[in-house]
Amino acid sequence: MMAVKQQVPKSSVRTSVLSDESYGKIKEMIVTYEIAPGSRVNIDALSLRLKTSQTPIREALARLEADGLIKKEPLKGYSATNLLTLNEFQDLFQFRLLIEPWAAEQAAQRITPESKRILKLEMSSTKKTIKQKNVDEFKSLTEHDARFHKLVAQLSGSKSVESAFERTHCHLHLFRLFMAHKLHLIENNSRAKFVEGLFEQYYQNGSGQLAIIEHSGIADAIIDGDSKAARSNMYSHIQSSLKRFSSSVQ
User: Fold this and answer.
1) Which of 3, 53, 158, 174 has the greatest number of beta carbons closer than 10 A?
2) InterPro entries, from UniProt (predicted)?
């Protein structure tokens, strides 16, 4: 007897598409400061702005809450999360030092021809020259950074490590800090100096290119199946990143 294929209702597909579109648009509004850190998020206003119903807006906000960009409080509703504090920034890097070197080591031990192909493809995307003072170029560097570290976590074969890394949303938070500096939206003077120094130290004077060189060293070690070098290179890379921020973080 031939099995009857169950069709997904067109209305469900349409809602899913609208949810994806709403998610992308609201996320862009948050990272570009159209929705400022800590500000309330009004579902009715977003529904009117994006010309869609409240259902996809609510679904999008739930996803953004999982991303750490939105928070929901009882009786208060939704609001955009605040930027990382200095202590949270330091804690983030210490956490990465615990899990990412191990992930790189495991990735090297588990390397396959397909994994090699994916790593090489990602590294080939970095050949374009980075112009540090251009927001779009900085965004491209941040996106590569996020993809690369996520890929290493995935190649470790540990769902727990991959999930733990994704929950930090570290590169998304860094891009928000960058936009705060570019748009001068941080009122507290000491915090403004932190953000300004953060990006002058890390992404000016060729430091962005240095990060890519360090990524290449990690990728080469993983591709070669050299687990010891992969672990060591990843640890050194994260420490190096933190040191490049050091004058602002201390």
Assistant:
1) 174
2) GntR_C (IPR011711), TF_FadR/GntR_C (IPR008920), Tscrpt_reg_HTH_GntR (IPR000524), WH-like_DNA-bd_sf (IPR036388), WH_DNA-bd_sf (IPR036390)
Residue found under tokens 């119903």: 53
pLDDT score, position 249? 44
Tens of pLDDT, residues 23-41: 989 988 887 778 888 899 9
Same structural domain for residues 148 and 185? yes
| Same domain? 76 vs 143 | no
**Tokens, residue 61:** 């906000």
Nearest to 152 by CA among 196, 88, 102, 190: 102
Bridge partners (DSSP) of residue 71 are 79
The predicted pLDDT at position 129 comes to 47
Of 35, 62, 80, which marks where a domain is finished? 80
